[in-house]
Design a protein that fits this description.
Blueprint: E1 3-6, H1 12-23, E2 27-32, H2 35-45, E3 48-51, H3 57-71, E4 76-79, H4 91-116, E5 123-127, H5 134-137, H6 150-169, E6 174-178, H7 197-208, E7 218-221, E8 224-225
Parallel strand pairs: 1-2, 1-4, 2-3, 4-5, 5-6, 6-7
Antiparallel strand pairs: 7-8
Helix pairs in contact: 1-7, 3-4, 4-6
């Protein structure tokens, strides 16, 4: 049984990814800040819940300790938790955006590495964004060109770079980042755009179910590797 932990999985792409991986037979741990919402989401899927706030060191440590106690290893880690940070651009807002979207990846990855090393096919997937791609945001033919989300874009660029650097420093573990596509979630509700979460989650699931010889250090969307 493949053991999978997904951060920010009580709704949106994270929840749908948990649903699809559960249907594939994974033992899925839904990580969420809010206990009530997380437990409700896990119950709806037949998954398991761990309280996990990616901005809190103790919360992250406790969540991974719970997975360790129950499973003794972790096969797949999905970094899905994130915020849009589309309000005022100032120091506190920047710190919050980077703490969630980038530093949170470091916190959870570092806590998870000992458990991932116990897996026969360890895999880490980061739900990033082509908003963090210089190629995309400077290309008039791309939708990212006209989206002024400075803090989100910068923090997602950091998320993708962290993925590449971890792939280089941890050659025994696959690390890949992805652009899930513009998706109709709470995060994008203000824009009134997006496709069903089922479509976007499929790319996450594809990268979460790579074989042992799968790629690492890549940034992909549903069609393959992206420039960034």
């Amino acid at each position: 049984m493949t053991v999978t932990l997904i951060t920010g999985a009580n709704k949106g792409i994270g929840f749908e990814t948990a649903k699809q991986l559960t249907e594939l037979g994974h033992t899925v741990y839904i990580g969420a800040r809010d206990v009530e919402r997380g437990e409700k989401a896990a119950a709806a899927l037949g998954a398991r819940f761990v309280q996990l706030d990616v901005t809190d060191d103790a919360s992250v440590s406790d969540a991974l300790a719970a997975v360790d106690a129950a499973e003794g290893r972790l096969d797949v880690l999905v970094h899905n938790a994130g915020i849009l940070a589309d309000g005022v651009v100032d120091g506190p807002a920047a710190l919050r955006a980077f703490d969630t979207n980038a530093v949170g990846i470091v916190r959870v990855t570092e806590a998870a590495l000992p458990l991932l090393r116990k897996s026969s096919n360890p895999t880490v997937v980061t739900v990033s964004s082509s908003m963090g791609s210089f190629w995309a945001v400077t290309n008039p033919d791309r939708p990212e060109f006209a989206m002024p989300l400075a803090l989100y874009a910068a923090s997602k660029s950091a998320a993708t770079m962290l993925t590449v650097q971890y792939a280089k420093s941890q050659p025994g573990i696959k690390f890949n980042a992805l652009e899930p596509g513009t998706t109709a979630t709470d995060m994008t509700a203000a824009f009134g755009v997006g496709r069903p979460v089922q479509d976007s989650a499929r790319t996450v699931v594809r990268l979460a179910t790579l074989g042992a010889d799968g790629p690492t250090g890549t940034f992909q969307d549903e069609l393959g590797e992206l420039h960034w």
